[in-house]
Each structure stands twice: as structure tokens, then as C-alpha cells.
């Protein structure tokens, strides 16, 4: 433990040295200029560029407004200045200012709406120079709506596009944390056109959030406007324009249609009430491709897997006064999918149908009771229903490395009524910006009706054993799969962003997390970060930090603990069974020992210690480069073990013969990661705008996650190896090229090293019902699949309906996207099972070349 903290405290020592050096001089009299930038409706204007210029026009300093539209320019000496504010879609504002030897009252700057101009411009977040502000780290990945519209984005899924900049080791057991307008949510809620910006790793050591910056996707939605504006997109794909899947015999018929848009403006003639309406309709008629082997030979076929997804989100905004704004938003999602889960080794008969309904009501209230105080209150009330049903009720058949057939045995219904809440207070005074708040990311009443595996599942090690009707294991569930429970998660934080000097900023924060069921009340997470500008020009900034980040289980494992307590839902596992086994319609397994799941009595919340040090450099007027080293150590990570597994050397008898498997969730795993990121952002040339990031990394661990089980339950020495998601090198590029004439070319490139996978025997020598045993002396993840290469292109052209006034009016954009334009085959799902006929080969591939047509109307 002491060793891990020595890693974390290294940046703190550097910070103390820098602070001591900076304070060694007595500065002259200076003041701090603070203010808020608003749009014409009175709503805040986040990400506005605020520039302080001398009377001669020379730039003295600059910053960017936060999510509440606030800015602060510290250590300004007496003199005559102008403050220039820029924000996409608004006219540049210039305010004259004279600084004397007296404090200056906080300013309020209201922007004027600009006429529509579709010339290519870099997003506000990409034009700010290097800065010592905590949220201005240039190794972040931030893309605005303006740039997204010029890039090849598959299905307009901005979240999926930005996910390639995430660090899988920072995500945690609950998956990627999605934050929309400051609140942790389960789904995006709005259409793509309603998104203003998507960020990853912005202010990575902020105490406001639970997970590290590279485990969070932060979305900022558009604000309503005082004039009517809208965007409508129609996207179309058809298999006749695509390349054939390498595992398909013929090019199967496919088609996808997306209707999506946003409309905003005032409610009637009101100057204080406005609306924002967004919606999406996705109609997908795609095919799933099977590549397996049965007793009759190779199986290659396609099955239709259609989905329908409808999303609607109206928002009503009201301005109560210059200092008080609130909006009420309703989100509705309706999804249906047929024949899901098929492909690779999974045969069509093992498909499932899925339905999902989600309804959310969100209240967001922003109030500035005084120039120095800001209150941001958010509450979300929601209801979700998820249903999965098997196409066939037949028993499931799993032949390792060959095929999965029979019924899916995946029938389950989950319901959720939840509330989420945020209350964040900000207080600014001089060189300090102090934030503190309460987070309730999940307070939910959940229901589960689990009828999974009621028909039973047979496991065979090879096709030969399947032909001989000699399974190595049989599993089945009986009893009541009905359970209701309350899931509670709380968090609180306090943070001080201190502008020590004009070229030195320091952030100190402390966060606390709590989750019921684990009964771990010690989860205090300290965090510290600094940014130090070198030289008078401040074109180089050294930035570093360290902090603790706790994980959480999420609701799923807690529901399983209640279901599989040995009484409610009875789970059976029989090794070396006869074939066939009696199933519920013909018999009962009451005489068999029951499997149970439980928490380790010593379990606690896992945590990660992360630390980083980097340098940022302004290499051109609108271009920055950042080189950052970061390391992390995962401690007490989740994993599971069967603590009642048969004991060696023959592995035939369980220690407790009255029970079957006892799956115990433990916090005993660990992880070590080291990463070097090189990030280039901004205008590379006069025509090129975007983001390039190269990552060199290595991550090792001895766990694959909360439900992961080792090969030998009593010997974990061979489990420490490369993490399942480890990729040594990654290059991600998002660039827009605009030569003029309203013509644009967008490029998205991803090149990555291969991920590891394990060599297994396909047998069950430990009689645990698992087939993940490895040959003697072979560690986990000793094999590696091939790398990934994906090149996407977008060609678009703007057309104006009002030629006499090209800068405004209705604009139509036609675009042609080509995804995986080189048609490079990126194989997936490699077989490490030595007994599989496909050992060392892939049984599926990521999509081949696809063509997408887009028509956009904007006004």
C-alpha cells in the first residue's frame, strides 16, 4: 500500500517545488476579472473563448468558459484592455475595460445571434491555446458538432466514434460512465443533432466524477435559441453498395434507414420561454453471419436480424430572470430487435428477441443568487423495462469451439424505477474557485424475472463427444426467478481550483463514494493536479496530477446475489452427466446440490491510483501538441472464484458435498498499466482541422472482471498476464479537409495492435463445469490476434437555396461516406481452444466496406 502511495505522491512533490519557486517573488498589484457569458435567451454559453487584449491589441491571456458559462482571468495588472468573446453561432463580442487599483465587479456578457455560416471553423474547444486552467488539458479528446458534421461517423453515433479514445482499464465494472450535461445517465436521451460537443479525459482529476477521465464520455447538448433553427438528417445504406462479409457465401440483402433531427426556437412570441425538440427513428434490416461446424460439416449461413429504434426528446426552457434558468425534458426510447445474438459459432436456432422501453423526466435548474455563487440542481426520474426471450425453448447445446445450438435459454425481464440527483454549488473568490456537491448516480427500485436456463444446457468438449452423446457438464435452473430490491449509490465531493500565479494553477479535491450491499464506508478519494506555464509567452505548459478512483459493482451482480442464495432460484451443475437429463417437464433435480453466489465477507470497493505528468506546447496559432505519461495501479479489483470447487489431485469431490459451486465475488485482483499519449489538436494547416492521438501502452492484470473465473480455482499463479483489452499501440485520427467551394473531405483512421487471447484445452479436468483450463505451464492470454485497420472517408457538399445571401437561409448538404474504404478484413473471435476445428482461426469479422448516403437540411 505504501508503495502505491509513493507512486501517487510523486506529482504532489513536484507541485510543492513549483509552488515554492513561484511564490518566491512578490507580485505587483493585480486583480482577477470574473464574469459569465450568456446567449440571447439568457442561458449560459459554455466553451466560449474569452480573450484579454491590451489596448494595442496584443493578446495578454485567454481562457474558456466552463459548463455554466463562467470565466476567470487572474493576475491582471492596472491598464486599459478589451475582452473579446467568441462562440460558434454568435457574433464576436468586444467589451472595453479599464483596470485600476481596485477590485472589479463580476461581468455579464450577452452574445448576439449570428447569421448561419457553414464555412469550416474549428470548434471552440480546439482553438484555445495552451492554458494553465485545470479543464484545458490538451491531451483530452474533444470534438464539437461542427466538426462531427464533416467527419465520417457511422450511423451518426458520436458516442461510438469517440469511444476509441477511451482507456478500457479506466472504465470499471459498471462500464463506461456517460455524463450528459453534468449528470450520469444510462442513455444519451437526445438525437445526434442536439449534441454540441463530446469530450473524453477533460480535467482527468476532477473530484466531481467517480471514474478517471479516460473512463468517462462527457456530452454537452445544445441550448435553445431565441430564433427558430433546425436540422434534419436522412441516412441510407444498402447492401448492394457494400462488400461481401468474408464469412458469407453470398452478399446478403441488408438495408438501414435513419431519420434524425432537432428543432429549437421560442414558444410563440415569448422572450423567456423556448423549446428544443429532438428525435431519431432507426430502421435496420441487417444480417448475422454464422460460421460454425456441426456433425454434417461447415455451417455458413445468414439470418435476418432486424431492429427498430425510436427516440423522442422534447425540452422546455424558461428564463425566470437574468440569474435563474430552468428546463424540463422528457426522453422516450422504444427498441425492438429480432433474431439477436446470432453469428460466429451461434446458430440461428439459438437467437433471442429483445424489447426495451425507457422513459425519463429531467429537471435542470441553474441559479446565480450572487455574482460569486452558482447553484446547479438536476434531478432525473425514470422507468425502464428490458425483455429478452428465446426464439426456441429447446435445451441449449454448447460444443466448445464448434457450435452453439438448441434454444438460447436467455429468457429474462428486468424493470427499473430510478431517481438520480445532482446538486453542485460553486463559489469564486479572488484566485479560488471552490466547488462542492452531492451526487446520487443511482437510487432505484429494480425487479428481475429470471427464467434463464429453465430448459437446461449441455456442454460437450468436442464434436466427437457430442456425436457420442457424452457431455462433460449439464446446468439448469428451477424455482422462482422473481426478486425485487433497492439499489442505492451516493457520492459527494469538494474541490478548490486555486490560481496561485498567472502561470501556475493548483487543484485539490476529495471525493466520497458509497454503495449499499458492500458495507464499505471508507471510500475517500483524494485528488491533486497542477499546471505550470513556462516563460513569458506561456506556449509551454507542464501538467500533472494524481488521485484515487473507486469502482462500483452496479445493480446486476447485486440482483444475482439475491436470486442465487440457494433458496429463491435453484441453480444446478452436474459434471459428467448422462444424456439426456430430466428437465422440468419430465422431472426434478431436487436431489442435486444447489449452486449459490455470495460476497466475500472481506470484500471492499476496488480502487485505482492514477498519476500522470506531461508537457503541452503551442506549435502554431491554432495547433497544440501534448505528450503525457500516465500510470495506474488497480488494487482490490473484482473477480470471482468457485470456493467449493473439487479439490486435487483428482478433483472429484467438493469440500462441502451438500452444495454445488459456491461462486464468491472477491476484491482480490490487481492491475498495472503504463501509457504514453501523443495528442495533436487544432488546425494542422489552413485546410486541415481535427485530432490525432497516438498511444503506446501496456496493461497487465490477473482478473477479467467481476464475473470472471480462473482456470484453477485454487491456483491463480498463471492468471497474471496481459489484460484482455491490452493493445500495445493505437493511432486514432479524426480530420476534416476543406479546400473551399463548400466542399469538405472528412477522414477517420484507426490503426491498432492485436489483442491477446488464451490457449485452452477445451476440457474440464477440474470438474467445475468450466472449459477454460490451459495446458500445463501456459499462462493466460499467451496468444495474440492480428491488428485492426480501419479507414473511413466522407465527401460532402453544401448547397444554398438563397444564392443572393449565401450566409443565411436553408442549407442542404449531400454527403457520401465510405466505412472501411480499403475493405481490410478485421478478423474477430479467435479460437484458442485446442480441441476446436477452428483453433488459431477467427470465426467472425468486423464489417467490410459499407457505403452510407446522407442528406441534411439546416436552417
Explain this structure.
It is a single chain. This protein is mostly beta strands. The chain has one domain: Maltoporin, Chain A (Beta Barrel). Helix content is 6%, strand content 53%. The strands form nine sheets. It has a 22-stranded antiparallel β-barrel. It starts with a helix and ends with a strand.
What would the CATH topology be? Maltoporin, Chain A
Q: Which secondary-structure class do the elements indicate? A: mainly beta
What is the radius of gyration? 29 Å
Strand content: over 45%
Major β-sheet annotation: 22 strands, antiparallel, barrel
Full CATH superfamily name: TonB-dependent receptor, beta-barrel domain
The number of domains is: 1
Which descriptors apply to this entry?
mainly beta, disordered N terminus, 859 residues, Maltoporin, Chain A, 6 helices, 5-stranded mixed β-sheet
Short description:
This protein has 859 residues and is mainly beta. It has one domain (154-858): Maltoporin, Chain A, CATH 2.40.170. Helices cover 6% and strands 53% of the residues.
Outline the secondary-structure elements.
Layout (H helix, E strand, L loop, with lengths): L1 H21 L8 E8 L10 E6 L4 E6 L5 E7 L2 E8 L3 E2 L1 E7 L7 E4 L1 E2 L10 H4 L13 E4 H4 L9 H5 L14 E4 L2 E3 L9 E6 L15 E6 L7 E10 L16 E12 L6 E13 L1 E8 L2 E8 L2 E15 L2 E17 L11 E19 L2 E18 L5 E4 L3 E4 L5 E18 L2 E19 L6 E4 L2 H5 L5 E7 L2 E20 L2 E12 L8 E11 L5 E11 L4 H9 L5 E7 L18 E6 L7 E14 L2 E20 L16 E25 L4 E14 L19 E2 L6 E12 L2 E10 L3 E2 L25 E2 L3 E13 L10 E9 L7 E4 L11 E4 L4 E9 L1
